[in-house]
Amino acid sequence: MVNLIVGSSGTGKTKQLVEKVVDTAKKSKGNVVCIDKGKKLSLLLPSNIRFIDVGDYNLNSSIVFYGFLIGLCAGDYDLTDVFIDSTRDIIPGNTDINDFIEIVSKLSENTNVNFHFSICSDDDYEDMHYEYAS
Questions:
Q1: 3-class SS string, the chain
Q2: Is the pTM of this model over 0.85?
Q3: pLDDT band at 30, cuts 50/70/90?
Q4: What residues are paired with 115 via a beta bridge?
Q5: Distance between CA 21 and CA 46 in Å, rounded?
């Protein structure tokens, strides 16, 4: 399953994501990972949630980031959920987010890992929270 939290800047997407990651970690029977570019979330998360600052890696395209996600899944068979904050800060703005979500959905289906993205969209979309499943 892929879960998206989409909204314009300043609408509370990160707060929603943090609440969801903490709640998921309490219920999960496996490992939970939170990814962000920068260390701002590392102080907000309990120590049982693995935090990864992708700023420490050279992720310069959506394909490289997808490979990074595959590596997380391949390296941890107990992984249940991956939360990604500020997705547009991690992958380039010219990436078709729908295409990216579609391939991540297939990864989710193959690995049984749930992916949760917060996506800033200052377009004319309404703020939304929805699940995507292939």
A1: CEEEEEECCCCCHHHHHHHHHHHHHHHCCCEEEEEECCCCCCCCCCCCCEEEEHHHCCCCCHHHHHHHHHHHHHHCCCEEEEEECCHHHHCCCCCCHHHHHHHHHHHHHHHCCEEEEEEECCCCCCCEEEEECC
A2: yes
A3: very high
A4: 2, 82
A5: 10
Q: 């909204």: which residue's tokens?
A: 7
Spatial distance between the Cα atoms of 66 and 91, rounded to a whole number of angstroms: 10
Rounded to an integer, what distance in angstroms lies between the CA atom of residue 15 and that of residue 81? 17
* CA distances from residue 128 to 35, 84, 119 in whole angstroms, order as listed: 21, 16, 10
